[in-house]
């Protein structure tokens, strides 16, 4: 590619050519002007010499007293080839020697008829009396030079005053400073032609010099600038097409050599950086393709530009389908993904159920260092098994391992919440606290394995016998607790009694057991804390044990009578 160097060369050539042309034109104009001035000065000098010669000759004739010869002299000068015009004028612009006015004045002054009058007289006005040039010559008593056009021809005209010297006073008197004016005109055509020839020659010299200099400058620019720049731009063009193995020769020590040296250094760094980036890209590609997490990336327009195999597997879509749907439809919920990009995931659920899988999803906008949006990326992870394990662990954390009902920790948590709700809203809350009668003796008789089977059956029966909102819990050992929300003392007593009978009738490997149950109810129990509320049910339980076991005892009855109560 040589477009850029050609433009640079044209600009340099145009600039240098313009400067050089202006310089040459200035020189030609200056020296041509000087030549023209010299030609005109020489011509004027020749005319001046001729004028002086004519004036001196005329003066000599007149002083010798040969006025009639002066008229003939004037006539001979008119016929001269070097002059276009020759006139001897009076100071008012009329031609002299055409009438007898001056002859009469001279004869009158000298008192004799020295000069014979002319047989015929005439009058010819050559210049107007008001002519500026004539007035300047007469009033200034000095020679006046000026140019004028006559019949398409340029004439150089001189007006030379004829002084009234002492020698002239005998005939003409001394009253007037001038006797007349001599008018001489010569053609300037030869001088003008010489000037034209000079100008033509100057233009020719200018053209030859300019073209020769321009060619020299062009050749110099091409060899010293365009060719080195072409090498660099050509190498840059090949680099832009992916060919990084470029190096340009370094010739000399000028700025272009420095540019070539810097280009070679830059390309060495680019090759090194490209090699490093390729290695890092290969690593990143390997990581992305082998990652278990799904990765989907888009450009600034939202078009998907990267999909890894894990994303295809997790979304159950091909990469072509994901690209066709667009980034916002990656999980088939445009509003959800858009909210992630706008709020960067703040306060948004990170998990969703998608095509039978529980996915952890996160999306974020990608910005440049300047803050402009350049794309988006999403990370998708299958957490189905993790969520199942979490649920199992959560269930294990509040479930009694032996009986399968809730454990003591969960019972304390639920009791605390239900107690607070009852206190806040004034709702009824009952609790059943029971244990297996003579359980230690039962274990000693039948063994601990048999005792465990009894506890398992009691737990199973507790889950079946009570409502869904009720919370059956194993308090510890053979002790159990049932929390009954929104249940008064009568309802709690009835539920406890029905449960007691089911246990009494429940055979475990042919063996029967019984339970004693204590019942406490809010707000009747008037307890100050969940622990005190549970203690009231425990007190009613032990009151039932003292009364003979296998029975239900209400805390209210124990508190009112202060003694044993066998039930209702």
Q: What share of residues are in beta strands?
A: 15-25%
From the alpha carbons, calculate the radius of gyration and give it in angstroms: 67 Å
Q: Percent range for helical residues?
A: 40-55%
Average pLDDT = 82
User: Can you count the helices?
Assistant: 17
The CATH superfamily label of the largest domain reads: PAS domain
Strand order of the largest sheet: 6-5-9-8-7
Query: What would CATH call the architecture of the largest domain?
Result: 2-Layer Sandwich
**Total number of beta strands:** 16
CATH class of the largest domain: Alpha Beta
Low-confidence stretches: 563-568
Largest sheet: 5 strands, antiparallel
Number of domains: 3
CATH fold-level topology of the largest domain? Beta-Lactamase
Cα-to-Cα separation, first versus last residue: 109 Å
Q: What class do helices, strands and sheet pairing give?
A: alpha+beta
Notes on the protein architecture:
This protein has 568 residues and is α+β, with helices and mostly antiparallel strands. The chain has three domains: 3-14 and 39-194, 2-Layer Sandwich (Beta-Lactamase), CATH 3.30.450; 291-387, Beta-Lactamase (2-Layer Sandwich), CATH 3.30.450; 399-561, Reverse transcriptase/Diguanylate cyclase domain (Alpha-Beta Plaits), CATH 3.30.70.270. The chain contains 17 helices and 16 strands. It has helices at residues 3-63, 67-78, 101-110, 132-140, 169-172, 189-240, 255-290, 309-315, 319-325, 334-343, 384-398, 408-425, 439-446, 448-465, 489-504, 530-546, 555-561; strands at residues 85-89, 144-150, 153-163, 178-187, 294-299, 304-307, 351-354, 357-367, 373-382, 429-436, 471-476, 479-485, 507-508, 511-512, 515-522, 552-554. The strands form four sheets. It has a five-stranded antiparallel sheet, sandwiched between helices. Strands 11-12-10-15-16 form a five-stranded mixed sheet, with helices on both faces. Strand 11 and strand 12 (479-485) form a beta hairpin. The two termini are 109 Å apart. Mean pLDDT is 82; it is low at 563-568.
């Amino acid at each position: 590619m040589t477009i850029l160097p050609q433009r640079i060369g044209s600009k340099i050539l145009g600039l240098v050519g313009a400067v050089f042309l202006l310089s040459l034109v200035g020189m030609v104009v200056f020296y041509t002007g000087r030549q023209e001035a010299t030609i005109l000065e020489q011509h004027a000098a020749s005319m001046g010499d001729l004028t002086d010669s004519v004036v001196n000759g005329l003066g000599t004739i007149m002083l010798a007293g040969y006025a009639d010869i002066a008229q003939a002299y004037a006539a001979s000068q008119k016929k001269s080839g070097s002059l276009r015009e020759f006139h001897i004028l009076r100071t008012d612009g009329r031609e002299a020697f055409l009438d007898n006015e001056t002859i009469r004045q001279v004869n009158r002054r000298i008192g004799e008829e020295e000069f014979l009058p002319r047989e015929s007289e005439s009058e010819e006005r050559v210049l107007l009396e008001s002519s500026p040039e004539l007035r300047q010559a007469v009033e200034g008593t000095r020679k006046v030079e000026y140019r004028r056009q006559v019949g398409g021809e340029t004439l150089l005209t001189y007006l030379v005053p004829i002084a009234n010297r002492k020698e002239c006073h005998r005939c003409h008197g001394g009253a007037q400073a001038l006797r007349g004016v001599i008018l001489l005109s010569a053609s300037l055509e030869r001088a003008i032609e010489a000037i034209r020839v000079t100008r033509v020659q100057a233009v020719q010299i200018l053209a030859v010099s300019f073209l020769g200099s321009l060619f020299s400058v062009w050749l110099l620019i091409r060899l010293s600038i365009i060719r080195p720049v072409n090498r660099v731009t050509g190498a840059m063009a090949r680099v832009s097409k992916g060919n990084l193995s470029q190096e340009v020769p370094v010739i000399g020590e000028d700025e272009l050599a420095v540019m070539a040296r810097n280009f070679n250094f830059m390309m060495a760094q680019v090759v090194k950086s490209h090699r490093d980036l390729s290695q890092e890209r290969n690593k990143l590609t390997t990581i992305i393709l082998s990652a278990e997490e799904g990765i989907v990336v888009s450009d600034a327009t939202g078009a998907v530009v990267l999909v890894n195999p894990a994303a295809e597997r997790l979304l159950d879509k091909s990469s072509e389908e994901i690209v066709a749907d667009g980034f916002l439809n990656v999980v088939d919920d445009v509003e959800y993904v858009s909210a992630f990009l706008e709020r960067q995931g703040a306060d948004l659920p990170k998990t969703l159920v998608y095509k039978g899988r529980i996915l952890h999803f996160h999306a974020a906008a990608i910005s440049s260092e300047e803050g402009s949006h350049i794309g988006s990326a999403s990370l998708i992870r299958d957490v189905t098994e993790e969520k199942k394990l979490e649920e199992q662990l959560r269930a294990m954390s509040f479930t009694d391992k032996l009986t399968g009902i809730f454990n003591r920790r969960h019972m304390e948590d639920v009791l605390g919440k239900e107690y607070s709700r009852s206190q806040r809203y004034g709702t009824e809350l009952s609790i059943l606290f029971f244990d297996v009668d003579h359980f230690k003796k039962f274990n000693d008789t039948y063994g601990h394995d048999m005792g465990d089977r009894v506890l398992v059956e009691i737990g199973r029966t507790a889950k079946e016998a009570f409502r869904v909102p009720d919370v059956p819990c194993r308090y510890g050992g053979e002790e159990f607790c049932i929390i009954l929300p929104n249940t008064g003392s009568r309802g709690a007593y009835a539920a406890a009694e029905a449960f007691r009978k089911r246990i009494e009738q429940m055979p475990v490997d042919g063996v029967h057991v019984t339970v004693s149950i204590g019942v406490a109810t809010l707000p009747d129990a008037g307890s100050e804390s969940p622990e005190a509320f549970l203690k009231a049910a425990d007190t009613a339980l032990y009151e039932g044990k003292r009364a003979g076991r296998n029975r239900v005892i209400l805390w209210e009855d124990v508190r009112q009578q202060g003694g044993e109560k066998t039930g209702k």
